[in-house]
Design a protein that fits this description.
The protein has eight helices and eleven strands. The chain is α+β, with helices and mostly antiparallel strands. It folds into two domains: 114 residues, Yope Regulator, Chain: A (2-Layer Sandwich), CATH 3.30.1460; 135 residues, 3-Layer(aba) Sandwich (Trna Endonuclease, Chain: A, domain 1), CATH 3.40.1350. The protein has a six-stranded antiparallel β-sheet with strand order 1-2-3-4-6-5. Strands 7-8-9-10-11 form a five-stranded mixed β-sheet, with helices on both faces. The longest helix has 21 residues. InterPro entries: DUF1828 (IPR014960).
Length: 266
């Protein structure tokens, strides 16, 4: 076998991996030799349309499958939305309320089909954003949740100007207005956890009465010693933001109202 045999060899392998199952006179399911990261196969259908065009669709399966691993509503805003939009535009894919679709003339079907498959692969990998992007989207999500819930009360990147003129110990979010402000730290990584501990301990050393809260992206990804240190220093930890947004907002509202009542009683 030589390099000259490479093209027919690969063509035969790819051809064997593509299977067409007609489901009606105008539609067929196409099975391709590509999978989601968890091993599930892509769902792709080709529909014949009027006017000499053809429609490639995933029957809304890709985003549904992605929803098993992440909150697909986050694709509507922030860094995730920008990435999703770039992928769709690059591969000519429409988003019809969750159904991903490409419409092309019949003559362009082969090229458009494989561009569509590549787009699905890239979209499926949105759950595996690199660490910096994950940190970015997590911080976007924390900011959105807190600012929406406490728009008139929360301060971001708060600095104690009386004791910290250089701004070396900023607190990401503070709910002020009481004798015991609530200091909230977004913790996505090991480095974030260490920084939160340093900042919190410095404010405690200044004898500031703070109620310390840590919102973690995924506690299971943090070293156990960092989780233990946060537990010792902080009043409350939330192990994840995902699916806990209402609980976090409810807790913060309850504590803030409590500290206001205590201040009024004094």
């Amino acid at each position: 076998m030589t390099i000259a045999d490479l093209r027919p060899l690969l063509t035969a392998a790819l051809s064997a991996g593509v299977v067409v199952h007609p489901v009606s006179q105008h539609e067929a399911q196409v099975v391709v030799p590509f999978d989601f990261p968890d091993g599930d196969g892509f769902v792709i259908f080709v529909r014949d349309r009027d006017g000499g065009t053809v429609e490639i669709t995933d029957h809304a399966h890709t985003l549904m499958h992605l929803g098993y691993h992440t909150d697909v509503d986050r694709l509507q805003s922030g860094a995730r939305a920008e990435t999703f939009e770039r992928i769709r535009c690059r591969h000519g894919i429409e988003d019809r309320d969750g159904e991903l679709v490409t419409v092309v003339p019949w003559r362009d079907l082969p090229t458009a089909f494989f561009a569509f498959v590549q787009g699905l692969i890239e979209i499926s990998e949105l759950r595996n954003l690199d660490q910096e992007r994950v940190r970015s989207t997590f911080r976007d999500d924390v900011r959105r949740v807190l600012v929406e819930a406490f728009a008139d009360e929360i301060e971001t990147d708060w600095v104690d100007r009386e004791r910290d003129d250089d701004g070396l110990y900023p607190i990401p979010y503070v709910l002020n207005g009481t004798e015991r402000p609530i200091a909230i730290f977004d913790v996505a990584t090991e480095e974030n956890a260490a920084s939160a501990l340093v900042v919190a301990k410095q404010h405690l050393a200044w004898e500031r009465r703070l109620h310390l809260v840590a919102i973690e992206r995924d506690q299971t990804r943090l070293p156990r010693r960092h989780v233990a240190w946060l537990s010792d220093a902080f009043d409350k930890q939330f192990a994840t933001l995902s699916s806990r947004e209402q609980a976090i907002v409810g807790y913060l509202r309850e504590q803030h109202a409590l500290f206001k009542r205590l201040a009024d009683a004094e």
